[in-house]
Amino acid sequence: MGSVGVQIVCVALGVLGLIGVIVCCAVPRWKVSSFTGSNIVVAQSSQEGLWTTCVVQSTGQQQCKNYDSLLVLPSDVQAARALTIISCMISCLSLLILFCGADFTTCVQNEDAKPKISLMSGIGLLLAGILVIIPVSWSAHNVVQDFNNPLIAAGQKRELGACIFVGWGAGVLLLLAGGLLCCFSRPQSGSSGGTAKYYSNNASAPGKNYV
To answer: According to the model, what pLDDT value does residue 40 have?
Structure first.
């Protein structure tokens, strides 16, 4: 069974990863304007997220607008919406399960069941980390591919936003927390059934008469 210190570290990593996924999902900073080449207009810049697109003026004024329709969005944005939300849900559920089965809580009195509960939580955190890394990597690949495409005008090119890096960091934290739980929450080898059977056989031995 994992130690209390490892479980506390995993809880901290999981909470930080969950916060990162929420920020990555809510903040419109997946793609930002690129000012390279002949595109030197800095009066305004555009920022694109999963739910809104924003235009930031040089004066600091920001105007955001929701996307007109889900059907006109690129496939990577549609997938990112679903995967990040699922990642948030799985992360929350895994952390709740971890709190119930952790050694520093008394929600579960059965000591034999706690390693299994922690292991289940670790698997959930691993899955949540993978689910958030997939969309940010997909979006980053598309941004880099479009940036290097000479057929796209300089004013339409985008660069990686802060949410891409936040998503990668959150995914790594969730993977680390889940990996630690899976490694340190294994049930102890051996069971008490064999020991009980051994004593029961020995207890019946004195009752027999040997010649």
So the answer is: 56
Burial of 87 (0-12, 13-18, 19+ CB in 10 A): buried
From the centroid of its chain, how far is CA 74?
A: 23
The backbone torsions φ and ψ at residue 154, rounded to the nearest 5 degrees and listed phi first, read: -65, -35
Out of 2.40.10.10, 3.40.1010.20, 1.20.140.150, 3.20.20.70, the CATH code matching 4-29+74-185 is 1.20.140.150
pLDDT digit string, tens, across residues 24-65: 999 999 999 877 665 555 667 889 999 999 988 877 788 899
What whole-number distance in Å separates Cα of residue 78 and Cα of residue 70?
Answer: 7
Question: What is the distance between the alpha carbons of residues 119 and 98, in angstroms, rounded to a whole number?
Answer: 9
8 Å CB contact between 45 and 57: no
Chain position carrying tokens 């607008």: 65
**SS3 of 103, please?**
coil
User: Which range is least confidently modeled, 99-108, 132-141, 154-163, 184-193?
Assistant: 184-193
Q: Report how far residue 117's alpha carbon sits from residue 93's, in angstroms, rounded to the nearest whole number.
A: 12
How does DSSP assign 27-69, residue by residue?
Answer: SS-SEEE---TT----SEEEEE-SSEEEEEETTS-EEEEE-S-
Lookup: tokens for 174: 């969730």
What tens digit of pLDDT does each residue of 168-177 get?
999 999 999 9
